[in-house]
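Morning. Coffee machine broken again, so started the prediction first thing and wrote up yesterday's gels while waiting. Chain of 285 residues, entered below exactly as on the submission form.
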Amino acid sequence: MNPVQRPIDPLQQRLGKPAGGWRAKLYAIIFESDTRKGRAFDLTLIGAILLSVLVIVLTSVQSIAAEYGAWLHAAEWLFTILFTLEYIGRCLCVQRPVMYARSFFGIIDVMSILPSYLSLFIPGAHVIMGVRILRLLRIFRILKLTLYIEEYSMLGDALLASRRKIFIFLSVVFLIVFLLGTVMYVVEGPENGYTSIPTAVYWAISTMTTVGFGDLVPKTDIGRAIASFMMLLGWGILAVPTGIISSEITYQRGRATLTPSACPACLSTGHDAASRYCKDCGAEL
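Came back before lunch.
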């Protein structure tokens, strides 16, 4: 039995692994999780990311920040320095550091540490400190979710194939929302908070999607009847795009299991990838 091979990250292939020396050893630790040191590095990095995000969240709570602000600030800078060293290490141990810096996760790495440094030189830069929460996206790389490119491609193909149906569906929904919102503007009127058609359409959207913020509530019996109808209609409408996309995914999955090869005897196509004989004439494929 052949051993199960670990799938190769296409980005790592393009970045290039050094032939030897300390760079190759560093590459094995940072980019390869099938070694003891690599797994330890990944687990440590996941823990650091989660703790750093926890620090960001706690800093946003005024009562906690007022009492433990100094400790949280020190912890944030500790994580920033550690992530900076990690980013430098990733750039040093690959053959094409510029390609890594311009990759999706390379940009995420920079954006997760840059706000802390900008706050030292630009007054008011604290407003973008929330960008550091992007560190959570780095866990996707560590867990190797990007290796499932076939599933991502299948979902993308399903969305692309469904775009016309989804556009028509959204157009119908917008028409319904606009008409019912206009009716609510006429029925309820400005005295009940429906001061304009856009305001009434906003209410119709929040009601149709079953969100219902509660800032606008119908006061008349006719308005309540329309609201009840829209809430019931919303449940059915939410299921429509799910069905459209699910059917396309099913179609894409079925098509992926077919082989483009034709039968050498009758030239029939559309055989399963695991088929050994033609489904039409029975000849061996």
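The domain at 156-257 is CATH 1.10.287.70 (Helix Hairpins). Going to sketch it on the whiteboard this afternoon.
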